[in-house]
Amino acid sequence: MTNVVATLLAGVVFGLALAAPPGPMNAIIAEESVVHGWLSGFKAGLGAMTADAIFFVLAALGVVAFVEAFPTLRAAMVGVGGVLMLYFAYGAAQDVRSSFRPADAGVEEGGDAAVSAGSDRTAATGFTKAFVLALTNPYQILFWLTIGVGLLDPGTLDVLAETPYVGGSLAGLLVVETGSPALVVGFFGGILVWVTGFPAALVGAERRVESLAPVVAGASALVLAGFGVLFLSQAAGAFLG
User: Fold this and answer.
1) How does pLDDT run across 157-178, given as a tens digit for each residue?
2) 217 vs 193, 223, 224, CA distance in Å?
3) What are the φ/ψ torsions at residue 158 (nearest 5 degrees)?
4) Could you tell me the keywords of this UniProt record (predicted)?
5) Which helix (H) or strand (E) holds 176?
6) Exposed e or buried b for every residue in 135-151, given b needs 16+ CB within 10 A?
7) If pLDDT is split at 50, 70 and 90, which confidence band does 1 have?
8) Which residues are within 8 A (CB) of 102 and not within 5 positions of it... i.e. 6 or more apart?
9) Tens digits of per-residue pLDDT, 123-132?
10) How far apart are CA 31 and CA 42, in angstroms?
């Protein structure tokens, strides 16, 4: 029982470590949270998490490896992801202006019903944006081709070593045995904790700092545009080189 709990907690840490670093998914979640509210940010996170669940199933079935076997298909997916990121970056840039909080916010005629309907629409949009973007994100595909597909295979996993950007300095601190369903449950549980808490923290901060929403929207636009250009250049290099 103790080993199961330890493995579950290690999975939570693993999920948090992979979900937390800055990137296109968190840029979408952040923008949706501060511009449209917690529900929209949470559903954007669920969109990315749903894509991970699909990749997990496909990786277990060996389907994800099919993408890696055809470099042209993978390059096309990367190119589509780049275009989508630039498109969403344009939308985030537009949100910079619209996200400045008006002085009479919340007192306009028909407010409650309009806000409720608008929240439903934007939440659905946030889920779709993150879901589609995650499906074409080569980093997520690469993860499930390598580390992700091995979560159910017996062996060991250096959890923190796989943390983006800082993994090298954390290697060896948390090594767990793979092959346990508890590790997978904990992994997705860690992602769920992040997509719940991250939007809540941003919304709470935005209520205290009025200028936070346009700043976050602008930063999200820059992150998405940067990754969009990077992905397009990678796709062009694959096709031309």
Assistant:
1) 776 676 666 666 777 776 777 7
2) 23, 10, 10
3) -85, 95
4) Cell membrane, Membrane, Transmembrane, Transmembrane helix
5) strand 175-178
6) bbbbbbbebbbebbbbb
7) low
8) none
9) 557 898 899 8
10) 11
Q: Which two tokens stand for residue 151?
A: 């979560």
The DSSP bridge pattern shows strands 175-178 and 155-158 to be antiparallel
From the list 12, 27, 13, the residue with the least C-alpha distance to 202 is 27
Note the pTM of the prediction, 2 decimals. Answer: 0.76
Q: How far apart are CA 162 and CA 190, in angstroms?
A: 15
Cβ neighbors of 200 (< 8 A, separation 6 or more) are 38
Q: How many residues appear in the chain?
A: 241
Residue 155: in which H helix or E strand, if any? strand 155-158
The DSSP annotation for 81-131 comes to HHHHHHHHHHHHHHHHHHTSPPTTTT-STTHHHHHHHHHHHHHHHHHHHHH
- Hunting for tokens 């780049």 — which residue is that? 82
- For residue 133, the model assigns a pLDDT of 87
